[in-house]
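Supplementary Text 2. Reproducibility record for the structural model of the 112-residue chain.

All settings were left at their defaults, and a single model was retained for analysis rather than an ensemble. We include the record here because the model underlies the residue-level annotations in Supplementary Table 4.
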Amino acid sequence: MGRKIVHAKVQGTVQRVMFRQTVIRAMIKRDIVGGATNLRENRDQVEMTLDGDENVINEFLATLQATKPLNDWGAQVNKLTIMSTGREVNAHQVTTSNVDNRDWNPNVKFYI
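Retained model, structure tokens:
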């Protein structure tokens, strides 16, 4: 399969639990370019954009839904929705290119 771009929204325990850092670092490990943004109006939702190999992205999205929790802060996805449109990767709050420029709490263990 080839390259694809996916816009998705996840719902669950995804804000204030290091979800964005967890998911972005997991994307980097899989050579996916991507971004994630907390939705202020819905505190249990995060929007994501993923750009990479179609098989790798499909496997990654399945892992996001199956792994509970995603880190030792309790982040977990209860629902994942594929959207027809979304933000460009660099329009997200946290991306695979800026994740190391943020002041994250270092005391988090990633499970994905």
